[in-house]
Amino acid sequence: MLSEYRSKLVTAEEAARAVRSGDWVDYGFGGGFPELMDRALAGRKGELKDVKIRGGLVIRPWIEVVEQDPERSSFTYYSWHIGDYERKLQSRGLVKFLPVMLRSLPELYRNHIRVDVAFVPVSVPDEKGFCGLGISNYAWRVILENARTVVFEINERLPRLQGVDGSHRVRLSEADYIVEGEHEPLPVRGYREASETDRRIAQLVTAEIPDGAVLALGVGGVPFTVANMIAQSDLKDIGCHTGTISDAFMALYRAGKLTNARKEIDRGLSTWNLAMGSQELYDWLDAEPGLFRPGSLDYVHNPYRMAEMRNFISINGGVQLDLMGQENGESAGTRQLSGIGGQMDFLEGAFRSQGGKGFICINSSRVDKTGTRRSNIVPFIPGGSTVSVPRTMIQYVATEYGVVKLSGLSLWERAQAMISVAHPDFREELTQYAQESLR
Length: 439
What we know:
The structure is a single chain. Helix 11 links the parallel strand 12 (270-275) and strand 13. The longest helix is centred in the middle third of the chain and has 11 residues, at 196-206. Helix 8 (196-206) crosses helix 9, helix 9 runs parallel beside helix 10 and helix 15 packs antiparallel against helix 16. The chain has 2 domains: 2-180, Glutaconate Coenzyme A-transferase (3-Layer(aba) Sandwich); 196-437, Glutaconate Coenzyme A-transferase, CATH 3.40.1080.20. It has an 8-stranded mixed beta sheet, with helices on both faces. The chain has helices spanning 2-8, 12-16, 35-42, 64-67, 84-91, 105-111, 140-146, 196-206, 221-231, 247-254, 279-287, 297-300, 303-307, 343-352, 411-420, 427-437, and strands at residues 24-26, 51-55, 75-79, 96-97, 117-122, 130-132, 149-154, 169-171, 177-180, 214-217, 239-245, 270-275, 292-294, 312-317, 320-322, 327-328, 331-332, 335-336, 357-361, 365-367, 373-375, 377-378, 396-399, 402-405. The protein has 439 residues and is α/β, with parallel strands linked by helices.
């Protein structure tokens, strides 16, 4: 193993020579980020032409190939999911958005799109030559199998877990080049303080959750508040099968609620694809690897796998819902705010699960910059905005005014249900539209 390691070990600058003009380069997704390779590739500005970089949900404060080349003379950055930093790039016209439903991403890489070079962040190898995928399993397995050139960037700060069955493991032999060096602290993400409205919605949703439920939590304020309420409740034997594991699940574990004891799949283990949260969360993953089953998008985001578990509960936020139940979960008009990510995957999984429930949680209204109250439940999703989830896939909607189930309802019945959980100031005009358009 040692000789193989040494034979592939190069500087980041040497590994960056593998990138050619016209190439597609993959950086990965979420908090795992190839910072050394990003810096080295940025150093080739002016030498390369038309290099396209794919990433997504970036929470670190910069990407060198973008910041060093704002004219895009050499590099163009594409994102599968707009994160906090990428929203700033978007306002500068420096990111191109790629819409995707996450469970379809591996199939895209297998059959529809090209990947030339993969920069893969991995943990420090063990004595057998295995590395972990740190905090982002993503679709790396598929990408590795299809890339022309694979670069492993060993990050000494990444959690070392490899999955109890090797689900989070790669071998040094799979890399063409290996790069190591000193890294910055891992990017962390916190949560804003829950509002009174968030707490009311969370109370209503928590009341719908039974003992032994398997949770898929989004990363917004309401899902995090639900987790905190469960931690303080009488509920027991909660399970985890989620796209992103966060501090919310750590809070459940420390309260003795997260046991995974009743899961039909991965019993006793918390299953996830990405990890995103505090350094304390990353330390937990590193210290207790036997508690987790990190897996690929193919595994974690498969709704048929979720369907094999009883009481699968998916909780996500949204931007707008219309009277038919269509959801805009990712845009403000034509401005992309995030992406649909795995929301559709987990909504379908919850729908297929015996006793499962998929919730879209949304404040009934908001106050804009002018001080005017606006309804988040609208007659129809306005032109230019995204219909992220069709009306046929929305099961439960929760606002501070209640929880309604839309499954199996006619258009008129859906409108009545949506109006019942809208802010009272807007119910009259919503009713008038429904009577004119949806009877």
